[in-house]
Specification:
This protein is of the alpha+beta class and 482 residues long. It has helices at residues 18-28, 45-64, 78-82, 85-91, 117-127, 172-192, 239-244, 268-277, 302-321, 336-345, 356-361, 382-407, 415-424, 437-447; strands at residues 32-34, 41-43, 68-69, 75-77, 97-101, 104-112, 136-145, 159-169, 199-202, 214-221, 227-237, 247-249, 255-257, 259-266, 294-298, 326-328, 350-354, 363-368, 374-378, 409-411, 428-433, 450-455, 474-479. It contains 14 helices and 23 strands. It has an 11-stranded mixed β-sheet, sandwiched between helices. A 5-stranded mixed β-sheet has the order 16-15-17-18-19, sandwiched between helices. Strand 10 and strand 11 (227-237) form a beta hairpin. The longest helix has 26 residues, at 382-407. The chain starts with 17 loop residues before the first helix and ends with a strand.
Length: 482
């Protein structure tokens, strides 16, 4: 950890330049650093530990729903992409290719994995023979590469980390149940672990995953009013099954194509939680994924240091036994005020202060990163108080994010209204849409906003298309996005 000053005065205020604020915070909190390869970042320990904690939470949910982990190759033969035309057209602009290896030109180019539908489809065709092999429910934790032209750490990088689930089913009904189950798993995780409210819905045809029949997403609002797609789940129909000959012998003794799905979230969730919860003092991390949930800071003059440190060590051990991710900062060469600012900037949810007077009184002080509330609690009941306060912090973070989102949701009837609104406000807009790709494209060209999804449960409904004025088939959420 750097001992240089790196606190509030060196963080650009969000209101001044949100993008600059974001870069300042992730650099000063030592979540990442830039690599020498364009568009790629190095995850520093705190940044990677955020991902590890997300992995642990998600992996448990996947396994509870019957999925198992596997791993597939990073390199994918070019011929695999040619089998599913829409898929290759969707990814071709972002594909990096390996053309030489071992000093020799390859007979067939190899793509560096942008997603694994094609490779997994090839393998599923070998593994699936009968309805008894179905459903096949597999997840992969991996890195993928998409050669982005414009990059932003965590949110959009040329290489990123993610999980991708791929499943095969007997029929459409079972595959569609899987698709919606995993969308619900993502919703539960993002809201109840990351404390980020989301809007669930279906992507428009122009925004769906390349090769999918239907794509569903959860959309989150950042504090600058922009959207981040926080997770997607795709019903692929038999598109990939036909392309890769994934067949099974049915219960009626006939050969049938499998119905397949895919679904995924990535390390862009790290960027999202920073942009949803952070403030001008730095990070604000959700307790359930924060690398350090509580920081114990002993306070007092040298003559009382030994007694205070002895009790600090006891409390540390007690909290660790209870499963709290706790650290102690007992460095004597740094002032308590410096430490307070440092851990606020790093987003540690809870600070525990213990001084000689506290020790005499049998108490310590808990300080919330979110509300700033200071609470004096008995040392005897510290663990229960810490656990309760961490739960309270999560609730407050979610409620604050939800209130911000609701304050920045608005409805418009026409494209002119949307353009005028974006001149004075930020956020998501509900608007009617006739279903025409031309109208959807015009919104993007004239406002920079894209359709995020067709929400399952819109707060308002619109009867006319905002562009052409014809009858609306859907109410759509439009927003500018990362």
């Amino acid at each position: 950890m750097s001992k240089d000053k790196n606190h509030v005065t060196e963080i650009t205020p969000q209101s001044e330049d949100f993008s600059r604020w974001y870069i300042d915070v992730i650099k000063k909190a030592e979540l990442m650093d830039y690599s020498p390869v364009r568009g790629c970042i190095v995850f520093r320990p705190d940044g990677y530990e955020l991902w590890e904690n997300m992995q642990r939470e998600l992996d448990a949910r996947f396994k509870e729903t019957g999925h198992r982990n596997a791993y597939f190759p990073l390199f994918i033969p070019e011929s695999f992409f040619q089998k599913e035309k829409e898929h290759v057209e969707g990814f071709n602009p972002e594909l990096p290719w390996v053309t030489e290896a071992g000093g020799e030109k390859l007979e067939e180019r190899l793509a560096i994995r942008p997603t694994s539908e094609t490779m997994i489809g090839h393998m599923y065709a070998k593994w699936i023979n009968s309805y008894r092999d179905l459903p096949l429910l597999i997840n992969q934790w991996a890195n993928v590469v998409r050669w982005e032209k414009r990059t932003l750490p965590f949110l959009r990088t040329s290489e990123f980390l993610w999980q991708e689930g791929h499943t095969a089913h007997e029929d459409e009904a079972d595959a569609r149940r899987e698709t919606m189950t995993m969308l619900d798993v993502y919703t539960d995780f993002v809201e109840n672990v990351l404390a980020i409210p989301v809007i669930k819905g279906q992507k428009t045809p122009s925004e769906k995953f390349a090769g999918a029949v239907d794509t569903y997403s959860i959309e989150a609002m950042m504090r600058d009013g922009r959207a981040v797609q926080a997770g997607t789940s795709h019903y692929l129909g038999t598109n990939f099954a036909v392309a890769f000959d994934i067949k099974y012998l049915s219960r009626n003794n006939t050969q049938e194509y499998c119905h397949t799905t895919s679904w995924g979230v990535s390390t862009r969730l790290i960027g999202a939680l920073i942009m949803v919860h952070g403030d001008d003092r730095g990070l604000v991390l959700p307790p359930k994924v924060a690398p350090t949930q509580a920081i114990l800071i002993p306070i007092g003059p040298p003559k009382t240091r030994e007694q205070v440190l002895a009790k600090t060590d006891e409390l540390y051990a007690e909290l660790k036994r209870a499963g709290v991710r706790v650290r102690v900062d007992d460095r004597p060469d740094l002032s308590p005020g410096w430490k307070f600012n440092e851990y606020e900037m790093r987003g540690v949810p809870l600070r525990i202060e213990l001084g000689p007077r506290d020790l005499e009184s049998g108490v310590c002080v808990l300080v919330s990163r979110v509300s700033g509330e200071k609470k004096q609690v008995p040392l005897d009941g510290l663990t229960a108080e810490v656990q309760a306060m961490l739960e309270q912090i999560h609730r407050e973070m979610y409620e604050r994010a939800l209130a911000f989102r609701d304050e920045h949701m608005f409805a418009v009837d026409t494209l002119d209204e949307l353009k005028a609104a974006y001149e004075v406000k930020r956020g998501f807009a509900y608007a009617g849409w006739c279903g025409s790709e031309a109208c959807e494209k015009q919104v993007k060209e004239e406002t920079g906003a894209t359709s995020r999804n067709i929400p399952f449960d819109p707060a308002v409904t619109k009867s006319r298309c905002l562009v052409c004025g014809e009858e609306a088939k859907h109410t759509v959420v439009f927003a500018k996005a990362y």
